[in-house]
Amino acid sequence: MKKLKHKDLMKLENYVEQRLAFRAEVLEHKKPRKLHLGPHMTLLFEDRLTIQYQIQEMLRIEKIFVRKGIQEELDAYNPLIPDGSNWKATCLIEYEDAAERHAKLAQLRGIEKLIWAQVGDHEKIAVI
Questions:
Q1: In the beta sheet, which residues pair with residue 91?
Q2: Are 82 and 89 in contact (CB under 8 A)?
Q3: Which residue from 89, 96, 84 is spatially nearest to 112, judged by alpha carbons?
Q4: Is the model's pTM score more than 0.85?
Q5: pLDDT (tens digit per residue) in 11-57
Q6: Which partner for 3 in 27, 52, 54, 78 could form a disulfide, CB atoms 3.0-4.6 Å apart?
Q7: What is the SS3 assignment for 90?
Q8: In a 10 Å sphere around its CB, with 0-12 CB exposed, 13-18 middle and 19+ buried, how is residue 75 labelled?
């Protein structure tokens, strides 16, 4: 898949105006891309649209509108876009209670080395 460039992103003021519609589109797009691994862990298989949304949100939240800052976000998030020969997944670990979240995250250290996928008789591959 093609990496995102500066020109692919909406200007901050345009994004704010279009955010609700874009968000609804992306949330619907994400539904079949989610794999729940239990009540507190979900894999989200990323693509260009999900990463564009993440970048747009970061730019909005952090009020980044200068070219250098935008490029830094692109550089950070573009590696999460699959290139057509691989998968990219974000592991979401969610606990509402902060104390429980802190304890569970400590217990789950290294979990990224234990998550794998296998399709049919093919070899197991790391997901994260």
A1: 43
A2: no
A3: 89
A4: yes
A5: 999 999 999 999 999 999 999 999 999 999 999 999 999 999 999 99
A6: 78
A7: strand
A8: exposed
